[in-house]
From TrEMBL:
GO molecular function: metal ion binding
Organism of derivation: Kitasatospora aureofaciens
Protein name: Mycothiol-dependent maleylpyruvate isomerase metal-binding domain-containing protein
Gene3D superfamilies assigned to the protein according to its UniProt record, in alphabetical order: dinb family like domain
Source superkingdom: Bacteria
C-alpha cells in the first residue's frame, strides 16, 4: 500500500500545511478574549495554550527542545504542557495568532511521521479549538481524508485513543476503521479527533458506540 506522501506527493503535503496554518491564523485572529480563555478539546488547556503549543516548533530550536525534554524527565507530553503554559502566559493573543501565518512555510515537523505528521499536528489542534468553540466546519475533505489514511494501531496507542470494540465510519467521505460491533459515525473531522484521543461535544457522533467518545 502506498503512503500518503507517495499518493499525494510531498509538494501537496507542504501546500496543505501552509494553507492550514494561514486559514487557522485567520480564524484565531477573529477570536474574542472570552474565546481565547475558553476550554479546548485538549484536556487542561484553554484555546490560548493550544495555539501557543502550535507555534512551539517555530520559537524553539532543536537544541533548546532537547534541553526542555531533559528538564521534563524525557516525557514529551509533560514538556509540551509546560512550554505551552509558559508561552501562552508570555505572548499576546495577536502574536500567538500571527505566528502561524508568519511561519506558514516553516519546515518544522514532529520527530517522527514526516510532513504528514506536521499537517496532522496543525489540523487536529485547529479542530481542538474550532470544534470546542462550536465554529463552523472548515477542514477540507481531501485534507481530512489524507490524515484519516494515516490512522494506525501505532498512532492510536501514542495518542491514547481506545477503539476496542468499535467501528468508525465517516459520513462525508469513504473511510472506515475497525471491525468492532459498535458503530460510531460522524463527519471526517470529528472522527479524526476521536482517532487522536479526543472526546467531542454531544451531537456530533451517532451510533451505538458514540457516547464513549462524547464529552
Amino acid at each position: 500500500m502506498k503512503s500518503v506522501q507517495q499518493e499525494q506527493g510531498a509538494g501537496w503535503i507542504r501546500e496543505q500545511i501552509a494553507a492550514e496554518r494561514r486559514e487557522l491564523a485567520g480564524v484565531f485572529a477573529g477570536l474574542t478574549a472570552e474565546q481565547w480563555n475558553s476550554p479546548s478539546l485538549c484536556e487542561g488547556w484553554r484555546v490560548r495554550e493550544v495555539v501557543a503549543h502550535m507555534g512551539t516548533g517555530f520559537r524553539h530550536s532543536t537544541a533548546r527542545t532537547l534541553g526542555e525534554l531533559v528538564r521534563s524527565g524525557g516525557n514529551v507530553h509533560r514538556m509540551a504542557d509546560r512550554i505551552a503554559r509558559r508561552d501562552a502566559a508570555a505572548l499576546t493573543e495577536d502574536r500567538l495568532a500571527a505566528a502561524l501565518a508568519e511561519h506558514a512555510e516553516h519546515p518544522w515537523r514532529p520527530p517522527v511521521g514526516g510532513r504528514i505528521a506536521a499537517l496532522a499536528h496543525d489540523a487536529v489542534h485547529g479542530l481542538d479549538v474550532t470544534v470546542a468553540l462550536g465554529l463552523r466546519a472548515r477542514l477540507p475533505l481531501p485534507r481530512a481524508a489524507a490524515l484519516l489514511g494515516t490512522v494506525s494501531a501505532r498512532s492510536l496507542r501514542f495518542f491514547g485513543a481506545r477503539l476496542e470494540g468499535v467501528r468508525l465510519r465517516a459520513t462525508d467521505l469513504d473511510w472506515s476503521y475497525g471491525q468492532g460491533p459498535l458503530p460510531v459515525e460522524g463527519r471526517a473531522e470529528h472522527l479524526l479527533l476521536v482517532a487522536y484521543g479526543r472526546r467531542v461535544p454531544a451531537g456530533l457522533l451517532s451510533g451505538a458506540g458514540a457516547e464513549r467518545f462524547t464529552r
